[in-house]
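Can't paste images in this forum, so I'm doing it all in text. The chain is below; anyone willing to post the predicted structure tokens underneath?
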Amino acid sequence: MVKRKEHEKGILEEIPLDLKKMDTVTRSHAKSVTQGKLHVVLPFDMEVETLTRLPVKSLMKFLCVSKTWYSLIRSQRFVASYYAAAKPSRFVAAFTNSVFGEPKRLFILSGEETCCSSSSSLVAKLDMTIPLVTLPFNVYKYFSVHGFMACKDGTTFIICNPSTRQFITFHCKAPWTSLGYDPVHDQFKALTLLTSEIDHIHNPSLTMCKHEVIRLGRGGVVVSRSTQVTSPYYLPFTAGLCINGFIYYGASVTSHTSIPTLVFVCFDVRKERILSFITTPQEVLVWKGYTSLIDYKGKLAVVVPNCLGSASSFDGFNLWILEDVTKHEWSRQSFELPLPLPFTLGMGKRMISQGTNKAGEIIFSPTTLPGRAQPFYVFYFNPDTKNMRRVRIHGVADTEEFWSRYGLTDVCCVSFSPQHADSIAFL
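Text version of the structure:
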């Protein structure tokens, strides 16, 4: 009993109490806590408010304080409050130890972002590793979806929470799968396209696509699978990006004239249906697998580098923003970069954008690690001031010790996702 009280005392002392804002009675209650008297802690509302301001790692420790705290921290209401609470923005970096070799392993790191224009470095810490998983080479990257990261390796789909270090895997019937989140019913769903290009080759008269929707429940279980979602035939060629309850991805639609039409497929996660095929200017999807979809101020946007053919770099880009989903209206902004960024295949040479930070800076990051134990850099471009800064991310496989310990070899693909929000939710 004494040891348990000492353990609880140590945990409770991690709570940052602002005693100056408390009344006399509350201060005495807080004082009694630090003395190991657990019969009085804080008024319930203040207790909840205090807990929402703590880092995830502290909350994971507090789950063992009492059944009351366990129930509170794991409750859906508290999870939602914690996610919505104003906290520093974070980034997530994910990379594999080898694309072509064995054994495969996925590394998930994260760190706190900064909006300081003079900042030249950030620090990433290793959150978790996932065995037997690798990033596809120069094809798809990962996106943050309501505090979770999704990735796939063939038909195996993996969802992980870097904050809680939980990950789940499940089998999909086809390799093309995207993760979405329904904010109305607080539910994650995975959309899989079942109809492939091979099906169309074997059956040229094929006019419809079939999809499977996998509904995920708490405890990492698949609640149900639905294969009743159909649409006109299309061929996808970008990863899916979830924004405000809708999954978007680039695709090609073949019409009766045999001339492909470029569109963005819009899938309504809550209603589980293909909402529309959004017509798209030719330039927006010209890069196909290298098209950079981003969430720009709550809207779908695409970053298109100004380089053609075999160009090895780009010194500017066009930012296409979907202004009106129903009217299929796009706007375009053109920017010149202070210095050119590489756009060639090879170790750390191709720069793409996967989003912005809270300051609105557009972030460019490499698609592969720059080499064995080499510094990892990302570039932050401010569209208002037209300034760009190079930021080193310390901790992303930039030491010889890291490469040796984990056996990193060959080409190591990497994905950099800004504006990741910490979540304490468990699937």
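The first helix runs from residue 2 to 12. The chain has a mean pLDDT of 82.
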